[in-house]
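Hi, here's the filled form for the chain we discussed.

Project: internal
Contact: R.S.
Residues: 461
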Amino acid sequence: MKRFLAVLLTLLLALGLFGCTKQEQPPQPTQQPNQQPTQQPTTAPTQEPAPTQEPAPEPAAEEWDFTVQVERSEQEYKAEDGTVIARESVERPVLTLVNASGEVFSDSVPGRGVTAQQLDVCQTFNDAAAAVGVWDIDMEEEGRTVYEMRKESGGEMPPVGREITVSEIYRNGGLLSVLEGDYAYLGGAHPDYGLRAWNYDLGTGAFFDLADLTDRPAELRETIAYEVAAQIAASEIRDGYYEDWFNKLLEKESFETCFGAEGMTVFFQEYDIAPHAVGIPMFEIPYSSISRFLNGYGEQLLDLPLEAKVIGDFHEAQSLWSWLEAGAPVDYHDSRAEGDYWYYRVDDPDVSTLADVKAMLSRYVDESFVEEQLAGDCVLREFEGVLYAAAVGRGDDLTIASVDYEAQLSGEGGKVVVTIHRQDYDDDADDWVLTGETDVREFPFLLRSGHAVFSTMDSIY
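And the returned structure, exactly as it came back:
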């Protein structure tokens, strides 16, 4: 019995040990009991800071400026026998933007420093230029018709055609002026030829004409008319103009012009003041002749050199000084008699007293010198506080052939040098001829607010 119990206990112990092997082992500690824990330093070691990453610099905006390129297209048409019957050749001024390296901006949207306003300026100019010279005429058909007609009659004919050429391009700051010639021949007695000017403000994106540059349009037109008249009178082909060419000049309400470095060109179309044989009359008008009539916009746009402004001031001084020699505008319906003279009321809305005359002249001539002239034997008088001018006018000096003007600047002043070229009437030639004699006169001035005030003055003519 005892032996049986011993065997049973042995079996039970073995079963217990077998069951222990099937249980999950407990998690082992991360640190062995006999291992010392890692000591963290109380002070962090000194480390070099990571370098700060600077943001990449923004690319600098490119600078773009306006320029005009000339695009040309050509087309030639021939008959069956190989004869050239028609030609078309068209040049177009195209306003574009370029950078310092000469790259042309080709995108249609703003970017790389180009603004929407700049693109609009280009588009407005190019749309207008592209619309000119577009014909409804089929040039090939027109050439073939004329060719067959001439061929039947046994005559010869140059090819019909159209040729548009860009002859001049001038840019000064915001001013762009392009001159374009237009030739057309459709089989008549002679071809037709015309000129066209594109005067454009690059700042505003608008075309302008001469009237936009002045607040004194009537005086400006009259000055241009007399400048043109003087050049026609001195021309060898003056007899080729219409007999009433001078009246036509004075009746002009506007003049076609283009602008250059030294002055503007006034031109007339065929049959305007002269027949076809004269061609296209063109006249150079120096800026000094018109500078006094410019308004603020005209002065800003043309940006004339100081010399031109000074000579313009001299012209204005000369014009106003003529009041002291019976050159004042008067109303002949309002007169007064005094001694041996008749006086007529001065007709100027801004000048009605001697004090007004003094203020007007003193803008261009030294005030003390003006006072001396008004205090002397002056043709201007006041009657009951109203200004009148004596009728003691004189004629022009016909011995003056032409006059040259030069402004010499020196510090805050300078002088205008006037050279008068003399002429005399030659009975044998039945005309006025130059004598070779010249008179030189000098008019000192000081600059005040950018304009000349002369220390002395008298009339040249």
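Let me know if anything looks off before we file it.
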